[in-house]
Structures are given as C-alpha cells and as structure tokens.
Amino acid sequence: MTPFTPASISDSLRRLPLFSGIPPHELEPLLPGVREFKARAHEILFQKGDSLRGIHMLVSGRARLFMTTAQGTEKLLAMVKPGQAFGEAVVFLDRPCPVSAQATEDSTFLIVAKDVLLAMMDRNPVFARQMLASISMRLHELMSDMETCTLMNSLQRVVSYLSHQLPESGDPACEIRLDTSKQMLASRLNLAPETFSRALHHLAEGGVIEVSGRTIRVLDTQRLKTFQA
Amino acid sequence: MTPFTPASISDSLRRLPLFSGIPPHELEPLLPGVREFKARAHEILFQKGDSLRGIHMLVSGRARLFMTTAQGTEKLLAMVKPGQAFGEAVVFLDRPCPVSAQATEDSTFLIVAKDVLLAMMDRNPVFARQMLASISMRLHELMSDMETCTLMNSLQRVVSYLSHQLPESGDPACEIRLDTSKQMLASRLNLAPETFSRALHHLAEGGVIEVSGRTIRVLDTQRLKTFQA
DNA sequence: GGATTTTCTTGATTTCGGTCAAGGTTTTTA
DNA sequence: TAAAAACCTTGACCGAAATCAAGAAAATCC
C-alpha cells in the first residue's frame, strides 16, 4: 500500500458520490486530511481489529470486504466499486474494524481523515445528511443480506441475487455479466462453490437461464423471480 | 397503538441516550414533532414495507424487530430495550421499512418526526454526530450478528451469545439471566428451538454451565469461551 | 502457444441441524 | 387452585447443503 500525493486529489474527491452535493470550494478544507493510496491486486488494505485513520473511498479498481474465522474460513461481505466508500461506521465509532479489506485488482483509493470529516459535518449540514444516508444505506443492504442468508434456501438465494442484478428495463429476457468469480459470489451468498454451481445448473435445466462462463442469459425474468424447486 | 399527549414528553426525551448530550433548552424546538404512544403486549408497531413518520424510541416496556418470509417464517433481529432508538436508517433513507416491529410487553414510546430531527441536526453538530454514532453502532451489531450466523455452527453461536452476556468482572463464575424466552433467543441466533435446547444441554453436560429456567450459571467463563464439541 | 495454475463442475458421501412427535414444565388465566 | 395455554426438552428421523474427490474448462504465465 503506497502513499501517493498527486496534483489532483480534489478532482477525484469531487467525483465521489459522497461529495457530489458539495460545492468545490467547500471541499478545500478537506484536502489536508486526504491521502491517496495505490494498492496492487491481492494486497490487504486493512484487517479485522485494525483501527482506521479515516474513511476509505475507492477511486479505481476493485476491493472486497470480508470476515474471517480463527480457522481461516472467509465470508465475503461486499464488493467495493469505484465511487463507493467503506469504513465509515468504524471511523465514527472509534472501534477496531470488524472486517478485513483487500484489493482484488490494482486499485487507487483515498483516505479521508476523521478530523477533517467531522469538521466538515459541523460546517455543512448537507454533508452530514449525506453521510447519514450513506451509512443508512449500508445498514439496509446488510439487512437485506441477512434476510437472504437466514430466511432463504440455496436456490432462493441464487434467484434473489440474479433478480437484483436485472436491469431496470422490463425486458423479459436479458444478459447478466457476473462481476466477480463464482466462488466469490458463492461466499457472498454464504454457499459452498459446489452448491452455487448446482443451483445455476438447476435453473438452466429449468429453462430460465443459460450459463456460459461469467455471462448469464436470463430467458424469462418473470419465471426467474418465481422459480420454485 | 394509542396516541397520547402527556405533560412531560420532554422529561422522557431528556432521558434517552440519543439526546443526553443536548442541553434541555435545545430540545424544545423538537417537541412539536414528538408524539408519545402506548402499545399493548403483542401489538404490532409497524410492518415490513411501511413507511415511518419518524424515528421510534422506546421509553418503557420491550419490543422486538424481526423479519418475515412470505411463508410466515420469522427471524428475530433485535430486542429493543428502554432508551434505545429504532427505525433511524429507514427515516433517513425515505424507504419502505425492511423489518417489522412488535411490542412484547405493554410499552410506551416516542416517535420523533423526521423534519424536526433534520432541523435539529442542521442546528446542532453534536447531535448530528450522535445520530451517526447511533446508526454506526447498529451497523456494527448487525455485522457481528452476520458473523455469528454465517461463520459459526450451532454450539459456537450459543457460546458466542453467552460470552457476550458475561459481566465485565473477571469472575471465573457468574450467573446470566436470559432476558427473553428461549425460543426468541433461538430465533435471534438463527437456530430451531430444539437445537438451542440441545446446545445448552451439551454445555451443561460438559460441566461449563448449569441451566435452571432462564437462569444460566456459568461455572468457568474461560472454559465457556473456548468450549469445543 | 504450451504448461501450469486456478476456477468450475459433477458425482458420491456425510453431517449438521431442521422437522416431527410426544411428554414434561412453567406460566397464565379464570 | 384447577384448567388451559404456552414453553421447553428429548428422541427418532430426514434432508439440504457441506465436504471429499476427481476431472473439465478457463485463465495466467513463461
């Protein structure tokens, strides 16, 4: 993880959704507290138990958040895409981080120090609301994951995941491109890779999807959503 | 759920942790947006899909937050105790509520309307931080639950739960009083009641605990935490 | 572009925890 | 305090998904 100080951190900042509602000149006081970092694919960004200096924001690349057991078992919590923030809750609570983070591709991200964030919130109520909305969203996503993991069986989880990936358009048929490996998706859904594979196979046999590598062709979105056994 | 307008809503407000850092005179502008409600035991407060007028705060009694499937299966997410807030994330996102809430005892609670809350946050940075910390805490708890539910087996989950209930004191032995029925705890840990019962039995056989009704006597906290098979 | 590693699939087997059923407790209610 | 209801425990059984194993496909690397 290499610190880096480019001329245009403020450019990157401005493009992040969390700061998009803020007029550029109000972002300036933030700058002394922002550092840019580069991480190579597979590099660990932080680990469970670490304390974080500030919130992390992915500028480019891809990262994953995951939990581990003492025995080494891993559970994927989220894939982080450019523009997304992570570690907000940790920073505001001043507690050891409950998850670990790893770059899955070569990535660039910003760390915005806690103190400048808090100062900004004090100064700018719009930003405070934005921050609150961002964490609230995280909470809702986690609830939804909890629902999937605890109330659904393996097939329903896969169906649920695919359904959430469908584009807004009401097209009866469409294509989904999985954005990570199937093993990672399996972990995200709390399934063994084998079980995930079998679920896809099952859906394909039922004639609702066609699988070829990471591309999944959904033949009938309606039937997918209501697919049973 | 009966609306109610007592003389001293501000008394109740002041005692809630979320508002404890706020000088009493600053709470005044909030009052027009606060309503007090009474609910009988078993009364549903709101259901998944509802939109909430404001954050809910339990003043007295007990409530539970839970998720349901179409088939009627329930999963307990949290028990709410007096002083705790719920529904914050829903309010700030303006989305349908992802969970349902029910009073488990006769209860009194306050609903603080969204608009006065936002106004208060704009006016008072300390409160904004408090709000953020509260939601962040919720997020951490949910992460911890996720960890229990996905990375641990049934026995480990029960051990984990009991360990978290231990008092701070380093006493090797102590007593835990379960604060809900065992079926509810089972649901909280995502276990069938039978499995929960068997896990307790197993621990008792192993000589680490003694169970009598809702009272659990932990004989050796150290052995409990590291209990295997 | 062939070799090597990683990822994915498929089948056979096992196991953990859920379900069903029945009996025992405790709590509630009248 | 007796009856009813709710709650808890225990045993027998079953099933969904994990694990194990091995081969196929895809991606990565010299």
Structural class of chain A: alpha+beta
> What would you report as the Rg of chain A, rounded to the nearest angstrom?
20 Å
Strand order of the largest sheet of chain A: 1-2-9-4-7
What is the helix content of chain A? Answer: 25-40%
Oligomer: homodimer
Task: Give a quick precis of the structure.
Chain A is an alpha+beta fold and 229 residues long. In chain A, 40% of the residues lie in helices and 25% in strands. Chain A has nine helices and twelve strands.
Describe the structure.
Chain A has 229 residues and is α+β, with helices and mostly antiparallel strands. Chain A contains nine helices and twelve strands. Chain A has helices at 9-15, 24-27, 88-93, 114-123, 125-151, 154-165, 182-188, 193-205, 221-225, and strands at 2-4, 34-39, 44-46, 54-60, 63-68, 74-80, 85-86, 100-103, 107-113, 174-177, 209-212, 215-218. In chain A, the strands form three sheets. The first copy, chain A, has a five-stranded antiparallel β-sheet. In chain A, strand 5 and strand 6 (74-80) form a beta hairpin. In chain A, helix 4 crosses helix 5 and helix 7 crosses helix 8 (193-205). Chain A starts with a strand and ends with a helix. Chains A and B meet through helix 3, helix 4 and helix 5 of A and helix 3, helix 4 and helix 5 of B. Chain A binds a DNA duplex (30 and 30 nucleotides) through helix 8.
